[in-house]
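The aim of this short unit is practical: by the end, you should be able to scan a pair of folded records and say something sensible about each. We start with the first protein, listed as its amino acid sequence and then its structure tokens.
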Amino acid sequence: MEQKILAVVPVLMSRDVAASLRFYAKLGFATEFTNTPDAPRYAGIARDGVELQLQWQDASQWAHAIDRPMYRFVVHDLDALYAEFQAAGALPSPNPGPYAKPADTPWGTREFHFYDPDRNGLQFVARG
């Protein structure tokens, strides 16, 4: 019987997991687990069936501050999600870039992008 991959769970680097948990709570993510309650170094968060994990990284791992992955989240109502994040105070200000606010792309999607406090790229996209 062929085995199926059921999910992918990205692990985002974090300099301060507790601070990351507070930031992602503004995006509507609930904490699923932490390795310790007081000073977590590893945690799992989830929203709408999407799971992310946050892992503390030593300062030596941050030598290349722009070398962070981008994560794309496919959503139904991009503009409503943007408004939700904006109301929660989760969007950076100023937020540079061509997709700082929801915009239609030449490749047929509608998107907005920003970075979390640890410079992990977050891209939210609604497909045509």
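Turning to the second protein, read its sequence before its tokens, just as you did above.
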Amino acid sequence: MAALIARREGARHSTNEGRLPRPCEPDDVIKCLDTLYRQRRIDLAHARVLRLWGERQTPPSSAIAAERHDYGLWIEALERLAWPLRIKGIVAT
């Protein structure tokens, strides 16, 4: 999410000299989400929660009443996203 925020704010892609390589590009994850959406495995509510909490760079908490609904959507979305990302080698088992 940090890479998407930086891109939105005008950052340009630079060489990865001297840094650890990224496991994937942000667009790889977006493509997986788009596929899940088209297959009706996730909906816009899932995407909204992933974006909102991703920008905050913290997951919603099940212990906070105001965040419980978002927490449920967050967990559902990540569970459904895990398999496609494993197949692509982005997430380890």
